[in-house]
Amino acid sequence: MITGFEKIVEERIRQSLKNGEFDNLDGSGKPLEIEDVSYIHEDLRLAYKMLKNADCVPPEIEIKKEIRSTEALLENLTDEKQKYKTLKKLNYLILKFNSLGTGAVKFEIPQKYEAQVVDCLSSEKSKNIG
Fold first, then answer.
1. Cβ of 43: how many Cβ atoms within 10 Å?
2. Does some domain include residue 98?
3. In this structure, is residue 22 part of a structural domain?
4. Is the pTM higher than 0.85?
């Protein structure tokens, strides 16, 4: 059974369609972008969506954004000292994210270690010993 309010809403939608108010909307004709929220506990998903719509981002999401930007920065660095410093920052951010404990262990991010940095450090260590 349709209530009076629902009838009014349906009539306004029909009128808007007839007037072409739904033509040329952003994203029209494109597939919907469905956000992966599997890492958020089921009980918290609605609250997180409301916070996101209000431009209030949870700390773990902020840290994930910072991790992604630091990874992008790390890829473009050529200076070994700067690369090592950025790698330390990246590992700190990953440790911080994983220590929040908001999700299952399977969603934890593994820390990053560059073979070049390890080789560089081990060669410097062997120079100091010998």
1. 7
2. yes
3. no
4. no
Q: State in Å, rounded, how far the first CA of the chain is from the last one.
A: 87
Contacts of 123 (CB under 8 A, 6+ apart): none
**Could you tell me the two tokens for 122?**
């081990």
Q: What is the pLDDT of residues 105-119, one digit of tens each?
A: 555 666 665 555 666
Domain hosting residue 80, numbered range:
40-129
Each residue of 44-102: pLDDT tens digit? 888 888 888 888 877 878 888 899 999 889 888 888 889 889 888 988 888 888 887 66
Q: What is the CA radius of gyration of the chain?
A: 25
Q: What separation in angstroms does the CA of 80 have from each of 12, 84, 99, 116?
A: 63, 6, 28, 9
CB 37 within 8 A of CB 48: yes
The confidence score (pLDDT) of residue 128 equals 59
Q: Is residue 79 part of a domain?
A: yes
Is 30 part of any domain? no
Number of domains in the chain: 1
Q: Residue 112's closest CA among 94, 97, 98?
A: 94
